[in-house]
Amino acid sequence: MLYHYTSQTGIIGIIQSRSIWATHAMALNDSSEFFHSLSFAREVANGIFEDDGYLSAFGWAVHHSLESVSADDLYLTSFSEKPDLLSQWRGYCPAGAGLCLGFDSNDLETFCERQGYKLEKCIYEHQDQIKQIHDLVERCLNRFPKPPLSRDEYKALTSKEQVNFELDYRLRTSQGPDKLEADAAVTWLCAEIAKLAPQFKNEGFHEEAEWRIIAKEPKEQVKFRASSSYLAPYVGLEILISAANTTLREVIIGPNPNQARCEASVKALLTTTGLDDVELRRSSLPYNNW
Prior knowledge:
Distance between the termini: 29 Å
Strand order of the largest sheet: 5-6-3-2-8-7
Order of helices and strands: EHEHHEHEHEHHHHEEEEHE
Helix content: 40-55%
């Protein structure tokens, strides 16, 4: 199960539209975190071959291409592994009126595979983040045109010959016969870095155990909603499908001054939309913020 914390308005929209919103990465409440992650990914990737003259053409190509990586056409929606979590009620729900929706993670995975999207767990450990980037850069190197000399042959050259080799290798991959292959390799890396960056979260948020649907160039129509100071682009991901085949399994009534009335109203909503089998329960947290 994966859980999405929302408001009473949110659950009405989700159930009536059979979809959950994925917001453009640049319009997220924590968009600064995404851009920090993207900058961090660039920094690590750029530094891997920074002092390696033998692969300087590859290092230059990676550095040059990563400067253009952006969040264009990247839409995200978030879930947590943990139900009824105090920090989630506080951070993502209105006071005294929050709801936690539990979705079948296998069904979410199936939806993403069908649409060409990704359902990924956020990465909190700093060293794990670095390893992920290293792995991508190594895979990119395997796609990149190979140098015309082995590393041992390069080391045997004089300093002047090494400089000439490096210049020739860079020209071959940036303007010459190997340009198409080189461009394809670094374009692939840029796309993978853009998809990886949304998974990076600061270690201080590890309690949230967050997962994200990452929709790159979504098939759904882009719509707009009013935010506090700008219009936020979003797409509706139709994950509920139908009443007979829904990913929604559970609704938890958050801390609320009148949980009984809220529970009865949510039950009525579920019943009128054919979702009678969805489990309904109340939060057990003694939390009062109203």
